[in-house]
């Protein structure tokens, strides 16, 4: 994950904009800012002036499509949503199911028991296949977990291989993809498969209560057991790291909920634990300190909103490099753009540089 550049010295208010209602969500792409309110979507320029606005229904969340930054994804808690153009807010594609990913010319969508590829230019369905309990898209591959089978498809829908994934899926099975392999996590077992040919690489017992898994670094995954006892490890070992060859290391993050993903910051790759706001280096050493408030990672550090105050912390420092004089409400939201900080506070959206 590439992060926007941090505002490293105390910023000043660049502009403010007041929405007709509370700001539901806001994102920035380049010098433009897109704002979702109840019933409307707005685009603002680099001075905070309105470029356009359109009416929308049922949307609660807003994001920029990672591989198509000319598209916005609007979704709601009840599922479904729409892809809209950043140029004018017009709807490009309405989606009834769950959007798995947006690629250069296609959207991969799961709906009920089907998985489909939809052409973004024409809106036509290019291919449809049987869906599954868990879907993952990584590069040029689509992985589908259904019953006790793991399937890999190419982006044109052609099946590449099928592998037996004989494990109890439980209520919330899911997959984690890394460089060269994919991990399927079920009710009490996690199994790793080679991404190219589907060969089983390793499996691990995660206990009766199951465990959570995620991407630690591009070529490593983490598995955290819910009961915090892992095979012959001590009971205070909470997270175990694996690569395609098997176990790499284990460590105690000091929290009962570990949710990490890889980020690139100051030219190096780290794992960012979103729950605690801590960076881990490739030796699994924590940088800085944990944070109690809401956090927003940026290249070189993170912004924290805690008890109405917004501060910036550099990667390896425990004290704030700066804290804004302004105070904000308990429900305020943080956002980051290139060399810019966004704060949504009620109906106000503020941009700091």
Please explain how this structure is put together.
With 353 residues, the chain is mainly β. The chain is built from no helices and 36 strands. The strands form nine sheets. Strands 1-36-35-34 form a four-stranded antiparallel β-sheet, with no helix packed on it. Strands 2-3-4-5 form a four-stranded antiparallel β-sheet, with no helix packed on it. The chain is globular. The mean pLDDT is 90. This is Pyrrolo-quinoline quinone repeat domain-containing protein.
Unreliable spans: none
Strand runs, count = 36
Helix content: under 10%
Q: Based on Cα principal axes, name the global outline.
A: globular
Query: What is the mean predicted local confidence, pLDDT?
Result: 90
Strand content: over 45%
Reading side by side through the largest sheet, how are the strands ordered? Answer: 1-36-35-34
Radius of gyration: 21 Å
Structural class from helices and strands?
mainly beta
């Amino acid at each position: 994950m590439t992060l926007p550049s941090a505002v490293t010295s105390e910023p000043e208010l660049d502009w403010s904009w007041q929405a007709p209602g509370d700001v539901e969500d806001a994102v920035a792409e380049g010098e433009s800012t897109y704002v979702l309110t109840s019933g409307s979507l707005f685009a603002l320029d680099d001075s905070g002036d309105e470029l356009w606005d359109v009416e929308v229904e049922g949307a609660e969340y807003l994001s920029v499509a990672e591989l198509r930054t000319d598209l916005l994804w609007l979704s709601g808690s009840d599922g479904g949503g729409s892809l809209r153009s950043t140029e004018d807010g017009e709807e490009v594609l309405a989606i009834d199911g769950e959007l798995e990913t947006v690629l250069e010319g296609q959207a991969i969508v799961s709906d009920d028991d089907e998985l489909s590829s939809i052409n973004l230019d024409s809106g036509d369905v290019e291919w449809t296949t049987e869906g599954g309990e868990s879907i993952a898209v990584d590069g040029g591959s689509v992985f589908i977990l259904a019953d006790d089978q793991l399937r890999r498809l190419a982006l044109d829908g052609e099946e590449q291989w099928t592998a037996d994934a004989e494990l109890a899926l439980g209520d919330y099975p899911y997959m984690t993809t890394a460089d060269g392999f994919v991990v399927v996590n079920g009710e009490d077992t996690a199994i790793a498969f080679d991404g190219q040919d589907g060969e089983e690489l390793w499996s691990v017992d995660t206990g009766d209560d199951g465990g959570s898994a995620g991407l630690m670094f591009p070529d490593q995954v983490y598995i955290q057991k819910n009961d915090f006892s892992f095979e012959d490890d001590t009971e205070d070992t909470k997270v175990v790291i694996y690569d395609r060859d098997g176990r790499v290391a284990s460590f105690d993050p000091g929290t009962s909920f570990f949710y990490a993903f890889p980020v690139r910051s100051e030219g190096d790759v780290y794992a960012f634990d979103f729950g605690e706001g801590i960076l881990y280096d490739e030796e699994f050493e924590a940088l800085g300190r944990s944070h109690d408030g809401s956090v927003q990672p940026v290249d070189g550090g993170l912004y924290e909103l805690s008890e109405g105050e917004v501060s910036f912390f550099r990667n390896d420092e425990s004290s704030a490099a700066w804290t804004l004089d302004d105070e904000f409400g308990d429900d305020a939201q943080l956002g980051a753009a290139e060399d810019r900080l966004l704060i949504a506070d009620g109906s106000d959206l503020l941009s700091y540089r």
